[in-house]
Specification:
With 327 residues, the protein is of the alpha/beta class. Among the domains are: 147 residues, 2-Layer Sandwich (Nucleotidyltransferase, domain 5), CATH 3.30.420; 48 residues. 36% of the residues lie in helices and 25% in strands. The strands form three sheets. The protein has a five-stranded mixed sheet with strand order 3-2-1-4-5. α6 runs antiparallel to α7.
Length: 327
Amino acid sequence: MASLSTEIFLGIDVGSVSTKMVALNAASLAMMDHVYLRTHGDPLGSMHAMMKRLAETFAGARVRAAATTGSGRHLAARLINAGIAKNEITTHTLAGVKMMPEARTIVEIGGQDSKIILLKNGMAVDFAMNTVCAAGTGSFLDQQSGRLGINVDEMGEMALSSDNPASISGRCTVFAETDMIHKQQIGIPTHDIVAGLCRALVRNYLGSVAKGKPILAPVVFQGGVAANKGIVREFQEQTGLEFHVSPYFGVAGAYGAALLASMVKTGQPAFQGFELLNRLHDISSFVCKQCEEACSVLRLYRDGRLISFWNDRCGRYSSGEWIDMQK
């Protein structure tokens, strides 16, 4: 448990599959705690769980600044009153460069999407993302491990034990699953099927995400899928490069967010994350018909009182004027 004098920088990454939190010592930027949990379609609930963990682990400590990232970053920022909400390209770049300052490429594969970031002198100069097809992401590996009757954590070691990977289509989830079912039916060993799946998913990433972009060494591998040693081996064999797995691969986005929070020295709003533990929060939405964009505007209530809007592209509501009018 932290002392009363401890100050921390906090980073939170809210994704569709998982929510991650990283706490850094404000004086040394050493990692003091990191948490990974499933979102289960309930970002408000996962944020509540994170704040409970924070309160228990760092009782009496002060959050000097906080930043959020991920698809749910705007919701998370409003829930804890964070002044910084940045996209995953920014936060994964910060995390990768912190681990390896000379890195030229970051490969990131998460629960629902994958990305490649090209670096020069520690700065992102190009990137690409795949958010359309789930083939090759963590959620797809979860599904297939369940169908094969194995733990997803075992897939990497199983793939490494294969000397004859099965031929699996990696173009999309439907083709890959159909291929795997057929291979099972004709009696191909499970470890060969898993190895073939790893090979196909890497091939799919290189063809649909990297799309001919130059993958230059050193390469840092981040995201939950980096835990799969079979995927790491396939990347190295198919590119001829060494892939350096970040020690914080599963929470890299949150780590980068915490680093980002540490860079802003003044003007940060007071942290309100612990309000989640003792006050009632609720979310509702409506479709704005003021223009053809028809934004699905989200509203956040605390103890029945409207405190925030977001997801309106023009800022008509999120500017705060509509909240002021109701006071």
